[in-house]
Amino acid sequence: MATQVTTAPGARFIDPNVLARLGSIELAARFVVEGFINGLHKAPYLGVSIDFAEHRGYMPGDDIRRIDWRLFARTDRFYVKQFEADTNTNFSVLFDVSKSMSFGSRGITKLDYGRYLAACLSYLSTKQRDRVGIVTFDDDIVERVPPSAKHFDVTLHTLDKIEAGRPGALGPPLYKATEFFKRRSILVVISDFYEEPEKIFDAVKPLRFAGNDVIMFHLLDPAEVDFPYDDSTSFQDLETGRKIPVVPDKLRDQYRELVREHIQAITQLASQNRIDYAFMNTKMPLDHALLRYLMMRHKLTKVR
Amino acid sequence: MSFLAPLFFAALAAIGVPVLLHMIQRQRTEVVEFPSLMFVKKIPFHSLRRQRIRHWLLLLLRCAALALLVAAFARPFFESAALVAATGGSSEVVILVDRSYSMGFDNRWERARDAARQVVQRLAPDDEATLIFFDSGAEAANRSTTDRASLLAAIDGAELSARATRYGPALQLAQGVLEDSDQPLLEAVLISDFQRIGVDSAANTLLPPGTVLTPVSVSDDEPVDNISVTGAAVQRDFFSGRERAAVTARVANRGGSTVSGLQVVLELDGRELETREVDVEPGAAATVTFDPFTLEDRGMPVSVRVAADPLPHDDVFHFAVTPGDVVPVLVIGSPGEAEANLYLERALAIGTIPSFQVVVRSVDQVTTDDVAAATVIVLNDAGLPVGAVGEAMTRFVENGGGLLVALGERVRWPGDNLTLLPGPIDEPADRDGRGGTLGFVDYSHPVFEVFSTPRSGDLSAPRFFRYRPVNVPADALVLARYDNGDPALVEHSVGAGRVLLWSSTLDTFWNDFALKPIYLPFAHKLVEYLAAYRSPTPFLTVGQVLDLSEYPAAEEIDLASANLVVRDPNEDRVSAGGEGRVGFIDLAEQGFYEIRDTESGASEPVTVAVNVDLTEANLERVDPQELVATATGRAAGDRSVVADRELAPEDLERRQTLWWYLLIGALGFLATENVISNRLSRAELDPDD
Description:
The complex is a heterodimer.
Chain A: H1 2-7, H2 16-20, H3 25-40, E1 52-57, H4 69-75, E2 79-83, E3 90-96, H5 110-127, E4 131-137, E5 141-148, H6 152-161, H7 171-178, E6 185-191, H8 197-209, E7 213-220, H9 222-226, E8 233-237, E9 243-246, H10 248-272, E10 276-281, H11 287-303
Parallel strand pairs in A: 3-4, 3-6, 6-7, 7-10
Antiparallel strand pairs in A: 1-2, 4-5, 8-9
Helix pairs in contact in A: 3-5, 5-6, 7-8, 8-10
Chain B: E1 2-3, H1 16-28, E2 31-34, H2 38-42, H3 45-73, E3 76-77, H4 81-86, E4 91-98, H5 108-122, E5 128-134, E6 138-145, H6 148-157, H7 167-180, E7 185-192, E8 211-217, E9 227-239, E10 242-253, E11 259-268, E12 271-280, E13 285-289, E14 293-294, E15 300-306, E16 316-321, E17 326-333, H8 342-349, E18 355-362, H9 368-373, E19 376-380, H10 388-398, E20 402-406, E21 429-430, E22 438-441, H11 446-449, E23 466-467, E24 477-482, E25 487-494, E26 497-502, H12 519-530, E27 540-541, E28 545-547, E29 564-567, E30 573-574, E31 584-586, E32 591-597, E33 606-611, H13 624-632, H14 649-656, H15 658-685
Parallel strand pairs in B: 4-5, 4-7, 7-8, 17-18, 17-19, 19-20, 20-26, 27-33
Antiparallel strand pairs in B: 1-3, 5-6, 9-10, 10-13, 10-14, 11-12, 11-15, 15-16, 21-23, 22-24, 24-25, 25-26, 28-31, 29-30, 29-32, 32-33
Helix pairs in contact in B: 3-15, 5-6
């Protein structure tokens, strides 16, 4: 796999359809993450350590075990080594499993894509010795796996068995989930975010205000973005069942503009609320998501 | 709403065909499942669903057109008269115009004609109108016509009559016109001054159900001043052997203020004879007595007149004064029994209309000349004279003379000559004790008619102690019987004459009848009946029909004469009856009619005085709504309870022709559908349009 990645430029962008054929989520996650990490050695983000943060001058009261003696030998001053606080942090995926996530026009559904994405991120976090957990929701909490160093397998198992069936809503389940995370956590919200931007952030902001780092992964199928339909026909809402006769040719442009405005509004609100947001088209490789995740970690490192 | 051919509604099932096709088409359409239609729904409605709405509109238009077509073939119609009115059905309008003489008050008549013209001008083109002028009778000037010009001409040519107001005949005529009409709406317009005196005649008239009766009053609510001459009486006397008459007139003031110095004029034969002044209190009457004038042999036309007021018809009263009649009576008694005639002679000496000229003879002295000079012969307790006189008397009766036979004990009638008697006479019969009384009286007979009402004389008061029983046949005309059933007064006809047989005496010998007050009128009526006397008629009333054959003053006129001329008060010649009605004159004008036979050579015509019906002078009004309620059975203006007319459904449908409007509506829908569908087609061919 690594050969494939290194020999062919762009091959590291693994087609999600190929991943879907692997069957095992763990294998797929490993497949992605390992290839991704291998590739990182050549990535422009080399040198970013997730262990060491910085040195600072010793202050009375600091633990003397954290004094960097080597630096003292060179400089004759006491410096204290500071490590990243996210080491051994909590990592949870909040996964939207509403009926709309079951849509897929190119062989892989948004649910599957999100499933692999969540697995990959969980695997990556486990590699960093983070405690991983998962919460699935539609219009309510469906299943919850609390973050734990031993819960990677349970998380994967949960991801493996989820099914999309019911209509979804962001507000009620996320309000409820806010209560689950007492410690600062990295929370990854994976959803198609079919709600008004203000409502979306009304639901997400409490997570952020509780001190968590929130990353929103916005999954959309290519058909949802491009609206490639031709014939006049009735469209049925997967969640509500409502049917509307639609003449796609007449409203395609307006539809695309609305989607673009929707994404733009979410991006703007995310920035305002210091929430990281990544729009994911399911035709894009998964390592884009991982890259987005690591960039987030990088920003956190800089902040601290 | 009802339908004449409701089976056509089965065709409404055809509406389901396009709907069914539409549903089938929809089922075949593939449905695309999409995660969320959040953005699709945000796209403006018209750009998304315009085509669909237009198609639904087309479907609705087509279905509506089809439904209207089916409804048109089902031939709908409204059964309610109110709805018929709403659909604009034509009307049968009866215009009733009061032309009684009270309408001559002030300008009422012109206002009434103006109101009638307005009704005519408001008529719809299809409305049929009947114009009825009425007073005490009713006459249709036009009947169910749409010719407005003839209606207006009839109104212009109408004139007031001299008759009184009676609403009954007019409403009955209107009732007949409306009942015969086949128009869906019935309406009557009553234009009148609404006098109360005419309302009673309308009590039994009810206009057809559904008729709208609209009253138009041309009278004012304020009380009006009106003076009427309501009558005149003539007091006769003799001065220097000439008969004189003194006229007393009665003047009534129906207004609200006292009339002072009212001049009352007595006119004789058209010339003013005397004028008197009188004061009349409001709501009261006064009498004026004029000086007597000498009568002539002919009937004299006399009028009493007051100054003209807004209602001139009742300001004059006409009547004819004729010389008093004399009835010659021959009383034949038994020789030496002059006392027996005393009571009868004295009774007949009293009286002026008529006066009786009594000649008393004993049976042995009477002559044929006496018989010939008499109109009535009384055999008072005397037998039939023998010989020529007896025969003359028989002929006298057979030729129309009157004979009264009063039986007493001296009557001996030859048994072989019972021609003049109703039956053989028996010997006197006595009644014991207080005597007998009259037990049965035929009050319908002219002799007893005047005694028929209460306080008009007690015929049971006289006591009869003896009488002569008469054996009358079973079919004899017995006018009175004693309380034991024996005949008291029997009538017997002989030829053209009449014989009355009184089975007791006319003096006090066998009864005390002659001592009772009733004796005098009884004696007068006996003689008047036998003389076939008819009292003169001083005046008649407008609206009556004069039968010349029954009019005493016209006895001399040959009704069959081709030269009979009758002139009305306007000097216009009028008909004296047509075929089958010879001698009958319709009295339509107020004043004096003159009847003359130009061939008979008589110098003086027969004068007939005619007055208006004075009840019409009472201008008291009735509430028009009261009359409307009487004539229609419901309150005026109440159209909510207008009953439906019983027209056949076919007639209702034919008059309303609602199918025509439905057909136009269907064509309109189809045209609209055509326009819209064409635009849709063009829009599909040219998306940039």
